[in-house]
Amino acid sequence: MKVHILDDWFVTLRTLPCFALLKEHDVTVWTSHEPDPVKLAARIHDAEALVLFRERTRVGRDLLERLARLRLISQRSVYPHIDVDACTQRGVLLCSNMHSDTPSYAAAELTLALMLASYRQIPDQVASVRAGNWQMGVGRTLQNRTLGLYGYGRIAKAVASYAQAIGMKVLWWASDEGRARALSDGVHVARDRDTFFSTCDIVSLHLRLKPATRGIVTGADLARMRPRSLLVNTSRSGLIEPGALEREIETGRIFAAVDVFDTEPLLDPGHPLLVRPNVVPTPHIGYVTEDELDLQFADIFGQVNAYAAGAPIHMVNPGVLT
Predict the structure, then answer these.
(1) Is 45 a catalytic residue?
(2) pLDDT 10s digits, 118-152
(3) Is 253 a catalytic residue?
(4) Is the confidence at residue 101, as pLDDT, over 80?
(5) DSSP letter for each residue of 116-181
(6) Could you tell me which residues come within 8 angstroms of residue 173 by beta carbon, excluding any fewer than 6 positions away?
């Protein structure tokens, strides 16, 4: 099959063991991002299978209508960036392993790293010593702090295990169903939402972005957070009410450590989440490790091979085949 892979910005995939899974296919890897659907269609006009790098490229009707030969989109995890109805109407099968049995340990590790980076002022301390100075301030320790985890899922549970290993207390909040599971597991769930936001030293978000969770964290929630508390978001920026975090950060009352943004790539050096000293920003690297990418793309390339063999797996719109 003619396989096109989008958005491999650092020419990583060819270096991974999983790339050998595509040895029977004619593969083109694109290392630069092209957001314009007309220009992108010109690049990949002969694609029979399209491999996506998470949510880096939107696949809408305007792109699909220009790809006459496309029969398969293969990716991993959720797909808010893909117009599934348009795929079905165009006869394009979407395959996406939802990896329900394994958390992203890379994302969990980054969550802990961001907490440490903010509390210990690591970016500023590094910048200070590189500038020929010495210590620039006094940080804080995480031991005995209360970590609030919003969302009772696989990644949050991994973060909880890391936090407890270094002596943090963990408090949970989630949907009604999530809180019921947490209580059944015997973990500490906040009495109510207000208590969760007002008593935690750190609040970390671990929810899937879907219509029910978009904007679920409001400006009022952030205003309830304690002075000098920290909000961590390695999930999706859309979980927070638009503009609410920027407004709260501008007051200087709380800190934030964020790996996700409303616009990605975020290339505006004047954006408030990039310039405020009370924010530690990273460029959506939660899942970007060699180990994690090899795991993910082994699944994605396996879906390409299964389709080529006539036995597709992890189908989102199987009606295409009928």
Answers:
(1) no
(2) 999 999 999 999 999 999 999 999 999 999 999 99
(3) no
(4) no
(5) HHHHTTHHHHHHHHHTT----------TTPEEEEES-SHHHHHHHHHHHHTT-EEEEE--HHHHHH
(6) 148, 149, 150, 179, 189, 190, 193, 196
Q: Which of these is catalytic: 284, 290, 292, 314?
A: 284
User: Do 55 and 187 fall within a single domain?
Assistant: no
Q: Is 284 a catalytic residue?
A: yes
Torsion over CA: 18, 95, 260, 233 (sign): negative
> How many domains, the chain?
2
**CA diameter of the chain:** 68
Active-site pick, 24, 250, 264, 290: 264
Pair 82, 173 in one domain: no
Q: Tell me the pLDDT tens digit for each residue of 229-264.
A: 999 999 999 999 999 999 999 999 999 999 999 998
CA distance linking residue 67 with residue 46, whole number of Å? 7
Whether residue 231 is found in the same domain as residue 266: yes
Identify which of 53, 38, 39, 37 has the alpha carbon closest to the alpha carbon of residue 4: 53
Neighbours of 194 (CB within 10 A): 12
Pair (51, 152) in one structural domain: no
The three-state DSSP-derived secondary structure of 201-217 is: CEEEECCCCCCCCCCCE
> Do 273 and 310 fall within a single domain?
no
Of the chain, the percentage scoring pLDDT greater than 70 comes to 99
Give the whole-angstrom CA distance, residue 58 versus residue 242. 20
| Per annotation, catalytic residue among 4, 236, 248, 314 | 236
Query: Would you state the structure tokens that stand for residue 59, as one six-digit string?
Result: 């696949």
CB 32 within 8 A of CB 55: no
* Six-digit token string for 269: 């050096």
Report the 10 Å Cβ neighbour count for 152. 24
Q: What is the pTM of this model?
A: 0.90
Nearest to 164 by CA among 144, 183, 180: 144
191 CB-near residues (< 8 Å, 6+ apart): none
